[in-house]
Specification:
This protein has 711 residues and is α/β, with parallel strands linked by helices. It contains 25 helices and 28 strands. Strand 2 (16-21) and strand 3 (27-32) form a beta hairpin. The structure holds ligand MGD (2 copies), iron/sulfur cluster and molybdenum atom. One ligand MGD binds at residues 11-12, 105, 136, 168-172, 174-176, 178, 202-205, 207, 219, 221-222, 224, 294-297, 300, 590-595, 597-599, 700-701. This is Molybdopterin oxidoreductase family protein.
């Protein structure tokens, strides 16, 4: 029996795990690592099931290649050659823009995903670049780009020191947090209250997080910008501000928010006006305070506007870049992703809907248009890495149909699922425990400065390829160098670029793979001048101290000051005012996350499905009665319809219904998931409605009708 330690790669909480394995590599148990200085032994039900997930018999062990219409197991050589032929044909006949690439969420949780995403994108040379960013956090990044000049300068709540936390549209007690890496988020919320701090949650549902709070405010979906504008209005009109950083645009901000009184907001968002005023006063009076928001407001029609307003409140109350407020992590890796040019969007536009490029990508919400619309530049080939578009993207069923029609598709994914079933070639990465792990991206949003590297626990089998090799070979094929080209040469090039003028360091680097060499380079060039060897010697992770103010290093707007009223945001305030609120009679659909789920890909593990983890429609009992609903209901939207079991609950606001996403399993090879299939929430979400500033999809406040199903 062996004991091994590693960081859990499933969600954003970066918990340290302690695994027991037998001689065959079978995982006997998974516990929290008590010696991890950051997670201190915490583990959630998903982390505890990492062994079962990793050993899922449905994970693909060999590449699949389509022959005579059927996916069949093949050798790696055959599979890479099939990719070379398939992509080569499309590129030579239709040009590079005819190939689209999509990077899904786990791309950002693997070392190889981080390392090869840019090289693969560049060697494909296409404008059709898509990722989970535009069905998730793009509004947050655009807001940071507009305010600070850097879309990666994301401030996180200083959870362990704050005196007041306002959570809007996030449920970290269940999701464990996002763009805010904090193991045991629930425990940290309890600690906040134990030390006398205050927790307020604004959410259309009384979530697990809301249940832990001092106060929960039911807010009508999609109306958060009204709530926040009224808070800003109150802070300014009552002169409650204490701005202690350099800002531009205070007068423009004052003018923009002038009409947005708490009384006006209350009618729209359903939070009483006196509560809005009191909230503004409490935020201003607290010794320190942080406002935090996530998916509930990012995936909405005014997503960027809302993200901007949240940080405006943090700035006005003197809590930006200050202990107990929101702060910037100082990661152990060199911040090579910091911008070298001013933040702009729209460097190119999408062909069909003329939507602007954002951070080098086009919106996922227009992928189906680009696939289906004939003409010059139509997408004919798809490359997906770690993504399940059919269940995760707005109007997934339309993508399902569109993907069936592409000339060639290659997927890097361990599962044959709703999306990868359309592939001509599937290249499966090995088990998680066979890969080294370092959270390159999450390490930039931790609530304490912290670093932890996990070497691979199990060796690769002779018939397996590392995810690094798979992505390197794809990159080389896309670059026209062919299936036989040497991945090591590509790795050297990438590491050389990372080192730049410090190329002399190359001889000192160590690591068993390209991503490990790159990590070593980034650590050595990073703020703490660590090395991979030092991290390997400390398998429980290294605490690098509490967050410290560092705004001055990060702001890169033309003026060097924080832009409080970017023109694009002032315009969004105007657009919001011109937009009539949904009438009271309109039922609005929102999502929800479930403790034992993670998007679409954990449902094939028996211990993680069933029980409370079911795909049901939450409906308030008054609406159940008013609509005359029975056990199942028909839910209809502009995009489509589903029939789903009804779960009456007082935890949801009247006039609002909630359906979790990631369900609707069909057509792949995941027998357990299919037994617990559920329905696809994204059959209801509408790809034609987006946040126009970031291009982000809208998953919340979707207008629906709900009716009784007879027979
Ligand atoms: N258990 C579990 N954990 C996960 C995931 C998972 O699927 N399951 N997914 C991971 C991923 S990819 C991410 S990005 C994070 C997301 O992390 P969170 O953002 O914390 O996750 P959600 O549960 O989607 O929280 C959104 C909340 O917003 C509320 N909401 C919906 N519409 C509105 C609205 O208009 N206004 C307001 N104020 N609230 C609204 C919902 O009721 C919900 O409680 O979670 C990660 N962790
Ligand atoms: N209605 C609605 N839709 C949503 C959301 C919502 O709140 N409501 N949330 C959105 C959010 S926040 C996100 S992040 C997206 C997620 O969107 P996606 O990333 O497209 O979807 P996932 O379900 O996370 O799919 C992950 C895929 O990666 C594969 N995978 C798992 N591990 C690995 C690995 O190590 N390597 C590789 N190569 N592949 C791996 C899985 O098999 C699966 O196919 O969904 C979005 N969709
Ligand atoms: S909270 Fe997230 S990182 Fe921690 S054990 Fe659970 S799934 Fe893993
Ligand atoms: Mo996400």
């Amino acid at each position: 029996m062996t004991i091994a330690h590693r960081t859990c790669p499933i969600c954003d909480a970066v918990c340290g795990l302690r695994l027991q394995l037998d001689d065959t590599g079978h995982v006997l148990s998974v516990r929290g690592d008590p010696d991890d200085p950051f997670s201190r032994g915490y583990v959630c039900p998903k982390g505890a099931s990492l062994g079962a997930l990793d050993e899922d018999p449905s994970r693909l062990r060999h590449p699949l290649v389509r022959v005579d219409g059927e996916l069949r197991e093949s050798s790696w050589e055959e599979a890479f050659e099939a990719v070379e032929r398939g992509l080569g044909r499309v590129i030579s006949e239709h040009g590079r823009d005819a190939v689209a690439v999509y990077f899904g969420n786990p791309t950002f949780h693997t070392m190889a995903g981080f390392m090869y995403r840019m090289p693969l994108t560049q060697s494909l040379g296409t404008r059709n670049v898509y990722s989970a960013s535009t069905i998730d956090q793009a509004p947050k990044q655009v807001a940071c780009g507009l305010m600070l000049g850097d879309p990666f300068a994301i401030a996180v709540p200083d959870l362990d020191r704050t005196d007041f936390l306002l959570v809007i549209g996030a449920n970290p007690a269940e999701s464990h947090g996002s763009l805010c890496a904090a193991p045991d988020f629930p425990g940290r919320l309890k600690a906040l209250r134990r030390r006398g701090g205050r927790l307020v949650v604004a959410d259309p549902r009384r979530t697990r997080t809301a249940a832990m709070a001092d106060e929960h405010l039911f807010v009508r979906p999609g109306t958060d910008p009204h709530l926040l504008l009224a808070i800003v209005h109150t802070l300014l009109s009552e002169e409650l501000t204490s701005i202690d950083i350099e800002v531009d645009g205070l007068d423009e901000l004052r003018e923009a928010v002038a009409p947005h009184t708490p009384e006006a907001a209350a009618q729209i968002c359903r939070v009483p006006a006196d509560r809005i005023t009191a909230l503004a006063r409490e935020l201003a009076a607290a010794p320190s305070a942080a406002v935090y928001t996530r998916v509930g407001t990012c995936t909405s029609e005014f997503g960027t506007l809302t993200q901007w307003l949240v940080d405006v409140v943090n700035v006005l109350t003197g809590n930006f870049d200050r202990p107990g407020g929101v702060m910037f992590t100082r990661p152990a890796i060199a911040e090579i992703f910091r911008p070298r040019e001013p933040f702009t969007t729209g460097n190119w536009r999408s062909r069909v809907r003329d939507l602007p490029e954002v951070m080098g990508e086009l919106p996922v919400a227009t992928l189906a248009d680009e696939l289906e619309t004939p003409g010059e530049g139509q997408i004919r080939a798809m490359v997906t890495v770690a993504g399940n578009l059919v269940l995760s993207a707005p109007n997934g069923p339309r993508l399902d149909r569109a993907l069936a029609g592409v000339d060639f598709m290659v997927c890097v994914d361990p599962y044959l699922n709703e999306t990868t079933r359309h592939a001509d070639v599937i290249l499966p990465p090995p088990r998680m425990l066979q890969m080294p792990h370092y959270d390159f991206l999450l390490s930039t949003v931790t609530v304490r400065n912290y670093a932890r590297f996990s070497p691979a626990i199990l060796p690769l089998g002779p018939d397996q390829r590392s995810e690094a090799e798979i992505l390197a070979r794809l990159t080389l094929i896309a670059a026209g160098q062919g299936a036989q080209a040497d991945p090591a040469a590509l790795d050297e090039m990438i590491v050389g670029q990372v080192l730049g003028e410090a190329s002399g360091l190359r001889a000192e680097l160590s690591g068993d793979s390209g991503p490990e060499l790159m990590l070593d380079a980034l650590l050595r060039l990073g703020a703490y001048e660590l090395s991979l060897k030092e991290l390997i010697a400390q398998p429980h992770g290294v605490d690098l101290g509490p967050l410290e103010p560092r705004l001055g290093e990060l702001v890169c707007t033309p003026s060097g000051r924080v832009a409080l009223a970017p023109e694009a945001m002032v315009e969004e305030v105007r657009r919001l005012r011109a937009r009539p609120a949904a009438p009271d009679s309109q039922l609005l659909l929102i999502g929800r996350r479930q403790l034992r789920s993670n998007n679409s890909w954990l449902h094939n593990v028996p211990v993680l499905v069933g029980g409370a983890n079911r795909c049901t429609l939450h409906v308030h009992p008054d609406d159940v009665a008013g609509l005359g609903l029975g056990e199942t209901a028909l839910v209809r939207s502009a995009a489509g319809e589903v029939v789903v079991p009804v779960e009456p609950t007082e935890s949801i606001m009247p006039g609002v219904v909630s359906l979790p996403h990631g369900w609707g399993h069909a057509g792949g090879d995941q027998p357990v998931a299919v037994q617990h299939a559920g329905v696809n929430a994204n059959a209801l979400t509408d790809e034609t409605v987006i946040d126009p500033v970031s291009g982000n999809a809208v998953f919340n406040a979707v207008p629906v009708t709900v009716s009784k199903v007879t027979a």
